[in-house]
Amino acid sequence: MEMNQYLDIFIEESKEHLQSCNEKLLELEQNPDDLGIVNEIFRSAHTLKGMGATMGFEDLADLTHKIENVFDAIRNQKLEVTPEIMDVLFEALENLEEIVLSIADGGDGKKDVSAIVKKLQAIESGEQIEDETAENETSREQVQDVKKLKFDEYDRTVILQSIEQGFQVYEINIRLREDCILKAARAFMVFELLEKHGEVVKSSPSVDLLEEEKFDNNFSVAYITKEDKDFIRNSLLKISEVEEVLVEKVNVEKPSTERVQQSVSSIQSNSSQQTAASKQTTVSSKQSRQQKDSSKDTSQKQKKNQQKTIRVNIERLDILMNLFEELVIDKGRLEQISKELNHSELKETVEKMSRVSADLQNIILNMRMIPIETVFNRFPRMVRNLARDLNKKINLVVTGAETELDRTVIDEIGDPLVHLIRNAIDHGIETPETRLKYGKKEEGTLRLSAYHSGNHVFIEIEDDGAGINQKKVLQKAIERGIVTKEASETLTEKQIHELIFASGFSTAEKISDVSGRGVGLDVVKNTIESLGGSITIESEEGKGSLFSIQLPLTLTIISAMLIEVGNEKYGIPISSIIESLVIKKEDILQTHQNKVIDYRGKIVPLVFLKEIFEVDAEDDQDYVSIVVVKKGDKMAGLVVDSFIGQQEIVLKSLGQYLTNVFAISGATILGDGQVALIVDCNALIQ
Amino acid sequence: MANSVFNEQKVIVFQLQDKEYGVFVQNVKSIEKVDHITRVPKTADYIKGVINLRGVVTPIIDLRKRLNMPEKEITDQTRVIIAVQNEMEVGLIVDSANDVVDISEDSIEPAPSVIEQVETEFIKGITKLDKRLIMLLDLEKVLSKENQRVIEHEQVV
User: For residue A421, with 0-12 CB atoms within 10 Å meaning exposed, 13-18 middle and 19 or more buried, which class applies?
Assistant: First the structure.
């Protein structure tokens, strides 16, 4: 199908629109009166519908159409935003998401949406609005009863102000001939003519529907002008295929000023967030319109900003990255050659190239950076649903969503975060009754934050819930045989907290389908460690817990210290190195089973890489080279034969055949084309 | 004989212990000379290590050891066959590799249960070509990780 080339764009944009619908819907839930939000959702839904219809995904278009109708009703204040309606809307969005996902997976986008469509229709029909059949009926009624056009408070204010300023406001009902073919074109001509002499403030059906020819043969508009009734009527009748024009003056009763101010101030607060343009405090039609314009301005501004970026297929970025990796390897080779040749001009050139390549690396890495927002986005709704399912009240506070991380990390970090958040909601935050009993606020707070620090990104999940019950954890750990009773007595608070990451651990008294059965926190830990990160817990019983995840900015190019063991070369990631030192052989101490050194007043166990990696080589040196590495608070000294130096290296996997090699996290290609293995310090520190 | 042409497959022939073995050409990515191999500690003894194959780190298996044959020094004739199976790329060290033959599928017979000195579990079938006997390697078995673990286990014990 020729549409295929647009499919990717369609999927991407659909996802974006769905995401924005989701966000706005959550916002709307907080401020049900803010019509600005409703308008934005309406726009997104409308675009989605158009795209779905163009691509031939009828179920998608159908469902969005129904959603649009509901929003239209809300917008026109025919419907109040109630939690029930919100639930149905969220459900409808979920359905849409499923459709889009199925399309993305190569499906045909077909889904039985009748159930949710029925629900949406029920909401609508509760208040009679234009869904396709009702629409026709209303329009037909309009021939007899012209007063059918409904004005909300905002329209009424505009109309009233216009009348005060000497304009005439008419309600015009136009009927086209039965055999009219291009109804939309005729409607357009009507609008064009009307706009010449005044302004159309409202139409029924809406302009969008008119454009799409989704109306019978007649439509009504509210029209502000200085011309008189007959002039308008006669000019309209000149348009061919217009059969009948009814023009009637509109009378509106004065609206309650309170309402108006409310709606205007909500518009203001909406636009003032974006621009400083709105300083109006009094209500006038002009000002309201100005505000409308200013919000239009901002949306245009946003569009302009968007136009400065282009979409690049992620695959291309990956290819670019791979090519650059090759370049880094060759750069390493050049550096080595220039060192050997000791040719000054060559040296200079290579140095310059190194600098350029460092800049290039920064840029490429930055290109692959995605704001963590893409992961955080899905959480507000998840939290909302979970809170509802568990009958808890939870306020989710998200900060630092703009923090950027490498795409590979972003792809992996979603599931662990979902798990931790579920955990915090299920086990952490108590039910409202319990919270009240302990003198806490009824509503629990869940803080999700991300920030940069050095070469790392931190993600924190903090709740003000029950915290970790150390006694329970210990009891469970002993029951499950994770620690022995004797050992448990010597554990520090921190070590006890870390027990919950042991596999097969669950302290929830009730097993819920929310946070599973305790298999998982260990998976979370493994995933994060496989990304080169770490996770720590701080918790105070009764006050809450804080899970802090530390992640490297990027995965593929790292700084490493190259060392030699026998005649084999290994790399140790700089991120885990504290210091490298050379000590006298006599300074190595022998404890019960281990050899240790006294490192700045601390006893640090030694790990002889020669033994671990089974390298054949004698050691008869008087001095020992040691690399002190850390894992969390723990340290170890890796005994090597010699240091080679620090180098930027490209981390590569050992391939699918060699998985789970002990203490090796990957490999890199050195300047001379040989492969060097990268030591996984985490595996060496117990 | 149009039919047999249809059923013919190209097979890369290589030597181990003066015997001829074959792998289907679609399972072979390239044939390389032996370059520097980096040993990977704590792996099964037949895993020689990894090489840099044009920027891709590729594991290398000593096929002699894998098939329980005595080891042999690397010579000028020694080759590494880069085999592809289930999206895994692995290099196999063989004594030499210098022939490509067409084999019709009809001529492949199941391997007899006993072939002198060689583990028959790694042989998928046998085919005769004039007077040559070519044993077709079962790559899936050679590269299976289960076997890898079993042998690792034996090593530990």
Answer: buried
**A68 catalytic residue (yes or no):** yes
Its CATH class, for the domain covering A4-125, is mainly alpha
The β-bridge partners of A202 are A222
What does the pLDDT look like over A83-142, one tens digit per residue?
778 888 888 888 888 888 888 777 777 777 777 888 877 877 764 434 444 444 444 444
> Of A324, A346, A345, which Cα lies nearest the Cα of A337?
A346
CA–CA dist A471, A465 (Å, integer): 17
Which CATH number is correct for A134-249, 3.40.50.970, 3.30.200.100, 3.30.70.1110, 3.40.50.980? 3.30.70.1110
The answer to whether the CB atoms of A329 and B55 lie below 8 A apart is yes
Distances (CA, A) of A196 to A242, A383, A566: 18, 51, 89
**Nearest-Cα residue of chain A relative to residue B87:** A656
Chain B interface mutation, best of A675, A677, A678, highest count of B Cβ atoms under 10 Å: A675
A327 touches chain B (CB under 8 A): no
Q: Which of B36, B51, B52 to mutate to test the interface with A (most CBs of A within 10 A)?
A: B52
Q: What is the CATH number of the domain that holds B110?
A: 2.40.50.180
Question: Distance between terminal CA atoms of chain A?
Answer: 58
pLDDT in tens, A428-486: 888 888 888 888 888 889 999 998 876 678 899 998 888 888 888 888 788 877 777 77
For residues B90-111, average pLDDT? 87
Largest CA distance in chain A: 112
User: Does residue A364 have a pLDDT over 70?
Assistant: yes
Residue ranges making up the domain that contains B19? 6-156
Contacts of A662 in chain B (CB under 8 A): 41-42
Domain boundaries, chain A: 4-125, 134-249, 257-276+283-304, 314-368, 371-552, 557-684
Residue A343 designated active-site: no
Question: CB A667 to CB B88 under 8 A?
Answer: no
Average pLDDT in the A556-563 region? 84
Give the length of chain B.
157
* Tokens (6 digits) for A558: 């790292």
Residue A306: per-residue pLDDT: 47
DSSP string computed for A345-385? HHHHHHHHHHHHHHHHHHHHHHHTEEETHHHHTTHHHHHHH
User: Whole-prediction pTM value?
Assistant: 0.50
Q: Does domain A557-684 have CATH number 3.40.1010.10?
A: no
Q: Considering A17, A39, A65, A68, which one is annotated as catalytic?
A: A68
Residue A609 makes CB contacts below 8 A (sequence gap 6+) with: A563, A565, A570, A615, A638, A639, A640, A679
Which pLDDT tens digit goes with each residue over B115-136? 555 567 788 888 888 888 888 8
Higher pLDDT residue, A325 or A261? A325
Both structure tokens of A339 = 């060192």
A133 reaches B (C-beta below 8 A): no
Tell me which residue in A568, A658, A674 faces B59 most closely, judged by beta carbons: A658
Kindly list the residues from chain A whose CB atom is less than 8 angstroms away from the CB atom of residue B33: none
What are the φ/ψ torsions at residue A250 (nearest 5 degrees)? -100, 130
